Amino acid sequence: MASTFFDIVADDVVYEVLYDFPGWPRIIQGRADLMAKFKGYGDNIKLQSADKLITHKADNGRVFVIEYEVRGTVLATG
Fold first, then answer.
1. By C-alpha distance, which of 5, 4, 2, 12 is closest to 32?
2. What does pTM read for this prediction?
3. What pLDDT is attached to residue 66?
4. What is the DSSP secondary-structure string of 1-21?
5. Residue 1's pLDDT is what?
6. Which of 5, 6, 23, 51 ranks highest by number of CB atoms within 10 Å?
């Protein structure tokens, strides 16, 4: 079975978005809610790239923060 992004996400993840996108929350808490929000993501957005990865360790390595940029096209509006 292939691994996905969600296989490495903790159950108590806090996912924050740095921009306002209509209909999308700025903060999602919990792995199950994150997975539910991303269900159908690929049906609505065509991704071109994900890059500029920055990583941070916190809380003596028990917390890992990743920052990245994603570029794509919202299919409904182009």
1. 12
2. 0.72
3. 87
4. ----GGGGS-TT-EEE-SS-B
5. 59
6. 6
Which residues is 47 bridged to in the sheet? 72
Degrees, nearest 5: CA angle 16-6-19? 20
The pLDDT tens digits of the residues spanning 2-32 come to: 677 888 889 999 999 888 878 889 999 999 9
What's the helix, strand, coil split of the chain in %, to 5?
25, 45, 30
The values of phi and psi at residue 2, to 5°, are -75, 145
pLDDT in tens, 30-71: 999 999 998 988 888 898 998 999 999 999 988 888 888 889
Query: Within 10 Å of residue 14's Cβ, how many Cβ atoms?
Result: 12
CA-CA distance, 19 to 9, in Å (whole number)? 21
Q: How far is CA 48 from CA 25, 51, 68, in A?
A: 22, 10, 13
